[in-house]
Automatic annotation (TrEMBL):
Superkingdom to which the source organism belongs: Bacteria
Region (Disordered): 462-494
Keywords: Bacteriochlorophyll biosynthesis, Chlorophyll biosynthesis, Oxidoreductase, Photosynthesis
Protein name: Chlorophyllide a reductase subunit Y
């Protein structure tokens, strides 16, 4: 009898066991250590592999190939194009036979050889989704490079990587590791815009595009510049990032990437320059990690802090706000809100607790904020319903729930992450969105009473003139039919 291919509905433990049995014990152990699990055993947001796919698609001269079930690949390609990817997503399909006979690996290898054209690409990324990972498709046996094109294979299953945020780290870390090994082996390509002898700070995390410029302005008085960000936008940027003086884990969940910066001998600093107190602590930590004298650090503080103070004072926030998200910047956003005057009783992040957000957690906890790591949607909703905020920042289902309750709410990813967060620009932008949304509270209340009962299960949708009603006697007839069927089945069984 042919071996059954594991189903992607098999449950987390079944899939993990299958992956271990299929020869991926080492990869499974690394995933579980890097991305500790939360209260739920399956991702509660989009497919985690989207994080890796997006990192690959945003990088110049990089081809990205998926190996997984067609339904997963359909969803991932749809989402990537929805978010504006202008690149082709490669796909190597499989069926039960090609999976269990090892033909899928042969097909992947063939696809990689066809794709690895040095004129077009620096790198080819292959991503194993749930089923190929659980089946042990051995991407580590792919050639490491073909005609100078680097080949990187990674496993990003939903049963091992809990959020798409952490999946970004899986690929970013794999690329940093490859680049570090290259740099250690001999000369590498010169990064664009490299200024010789200029010490830099490498920011870790996908940031709003204006933020690195804002951070550069904060660092300039100390004589520090900003290195290319992680995840990188082109291969040679990886060398420049690794060549930094200090790595800044602004998004605190990049465990694999931070491991590479540390292996390259770089000190790593957590938190970020938010608000007056956050910026003061961060600039001090960066300056000290770079070995600068306090007088140089004080120059930067003297320039940054008054400007941030002025921006916060110009737009104070008077509202109770809850914050939930899966971006990794939730604690920083909450700090900024608190410094601006908001009451923030709850922050939930789908990301895990790490040492890089510890300063933010302690700062928030000392001001009465409950910080929930690996927050589930149920925890986020319960917190929002309990504290009844003037504004809930959260994920799509949380925002929907808030609106049903007449609570003004904003989608974290599109509205909060799409604004500057750091320095004076961040301090100014947050107040504007909070004020605009909380002004609408009364309008939300009117909407709830207007739509009362519409869209809830029994009265969902619209009739020709009014809310649909059940045909007379329909439910009664159905109940009797179900009872008769159950009785008949019972009779057969005895
Ligand atoms: S790859 Fe895994 S987590 Fe992603 S959609 Fe498919 S089954 Fe779900």
């Amino acid at each position: 009898m042919a071996t059954e291919a594991p189903s992607c509905h098999g449950g987390r433990e079944t899939m993990l066991d299958a992956a271990r049995t299929a020869g991926k014990s080492e990869q499974v152990a690394r995933m579980l250590a890097d991305y500790p699990r939360g209260p739920h055993d399956q991702p509660q947001s989009m497919c985690p592999a989207f994080g890796s796919l997006r990192v690959g698609l945003r990088m110049r001269r990089t081809a990205t190939i998926l190996s997984g079930s067609a339904c997963c690949v359909y969803g991932l390609t749809f989402t990537s194009h929805f978010y504006g990817a202008k690149r082709t997503v490669g796909y190597v399909p499989f069926n039960s036979e090609s999976l269990v006979t090892g033909k899928l690996f042969e097909d992947i290898r063939e696809a990689v050889h066809e794709t690895a054209r040095p004129a077009d690409y620096d790198t080819v990324i292959v991503i194993n989704l749930c089923v190929p990972t659980a089946s042990g498709v051995p991407l580590d046996l792919l050639p490491k490079q073909i005609d100078g094109v680097r080949i990187i294979g990674i496993d990003v299953p939903g049963f091992g990587v809990p959020t798409h945020a952490e999946a970004k780290d899986v690929l970013a870390g794999a690329m940093l590791r490859y680049a570090r090994n290259e740099a250690e082996a001999g000369p590498v390509a010169r990064p664009r815009n490299l200024v010789d002898g200029e010490p830099t700070v490498a920011l870790i995390g996908e940031l709003f595009p204006a933020d690195p410029m804002g951070v550069a302005a904060l660092l300039a008085p100390m004589g520090l510049a900003v290195a290319p960000q992680t995840p990188a936008r082109e291969w040679r940027d990886l060398y420049a990032a690794l060549d930094c003086e200090v790595a800044a884990a602004v998004h605190p969940f990049y465990t694999a990437s931070i491991r590479e910066f540390r292996a390259a001998g770089r000190p790593v600093v957590g938190s970020g320059p938010v608000g007056v107190e956050g910026t003061e602590a961060w600039l001090n930590a960066i300056g000290r990690a770079a070995g600068l004298p306090q007088s140089r650090i004080d120059l930067a503080l003297g320039k940054a802090l008054p400007a941030i103070r002025a921006a916060l004072d110009a737009a104070p926030i008077k509202a109770r706000v809850t914050v939930s998200g899966y971006e990794g910047s939730e604690l920083l956003v909450a700090r900024l809100l608190v410094e601006a005057g908001a009451e923030v009783p709850y922050v939930g992040t789908a990301c895990p607790r790490t040492e890089w957000s510890e300063a933010d957690r302690a700062w928030l906890a000392s001001r009465g904020t409950h910080v929930q790591y690996r927050a589930s949607l149920e925890q986020d909703m319960a917190a929002m319903l309990e504290v009844k905020p003037d504004l809930a920042l959260g994920t799509t289902p949380l925002v929907q729930k808030a609106k049903e309750q007449g609570i003004p709410a904003l989608y974290f990813t599109n509205m909060v992450s799409a604004r500057p967060l750091f320095g004076p620009a961040g301090a100014g932008s947050m107040a504007a969105i909070v004020a605009a949304q909380t002004r609408g509270r009364e309008r939300f209340g009117r909407m709830v009473s207007f739509f009362e009962g519409v869209g809830t299960p029994d009265g969902a949708g619209y009739g020709f003139r009014e809310k649909p009603v059940d045909p007379p006697g329909f439910r009664d007839r159905q109940r009797k039919l179900r009872a008769a069927k159950a009785k008949a089945e019972e009779a057969v069984g005895t």
